[in-house]
Amino acid sequence: MRMSRWNVAFYSVVFVFVLVMLWNEQSVFLIVGTVMVATLIAFAIHILYPMAWETRMDRVEVFLRKNHHTPYIYIYYVTANRLDDEVDITMVKLRKQTTKKSRQAIYQAAYGAYRKDLTAVRQAVLQMRRSDFRTYYETFLFLEEEKNEQAREHLKSIRRQWMRSALLAQIERQSGRRELAIQHATEAMNASKGVERYTLTKEYERYYAVEQQETVQL
Question: How far apart (Å, rounded) are the C-alpha atoms in residues 192 and 91?
Fold first, then answer.
């Protein structure tokens, strides 16, 4: 796999640093410890920050597109932009790389929800541990079955604000209360960061921004 210029620069600096430390006869434990700390810091800046904390969506998009060889990152880009063929390919790669059953279940549920395959989502939910993700997909099933009141009650136990607001937006949208749907969708975006915010922003643009443009044209 081809390395980015950032990776080449980082490994070059680490290599030079190790050579200098060895030249000065520093302790091997000190060298290894320093390299490990530097690697963790670099990982946090280069991977964790754009995935979990970045609020500028243009930067998140660049990050996602650059990591097209990394399935667990690229999956957010292809699903958010509805690239069906690439979603299929990336999901196959993810399943091959993932060994934990709980993580596989989340991927299966996400893929089933994307494809509107309710059977796949139900099967995946049964394999999930009790968590916000399981409750989220259980609520999704209620919504797909048009059981909006049950969905509204069920989502109350979700601790993550962006998940609750995103589901509420879908409930209000299905009920024809467009303004409330937009309000909750905006709340979901404001309560999220990184790749979750990117996904929600794309969903907002797809469903609500287009509707607003059509309304203005009418």
Answer: 24
- Residue type at 150 in one-letter notation: Q
pLDDT at 55: 95
Six-digit token string for 20? 């200098």
Query: What would the pLDDT profile of 17-29 be if each residue is shown by its tens digit?
Result: 555 665 665 666 6
d(CA 161, CA 170): 14
| Nearest C-alpha neighbor of 204 from the set 158, 163, 170, 155 | 170
Which token pair is 205? 């643009």
101-115 vs 132-144: helix axis angle to the nearest 10? Answer: 30
pTM of the model: 0.80
Beta carbons within 10 angstroms of residue 26's beta carbon: 13
Give residues with Cβ within 8 angstroms of 65, minimum separation 6: 77
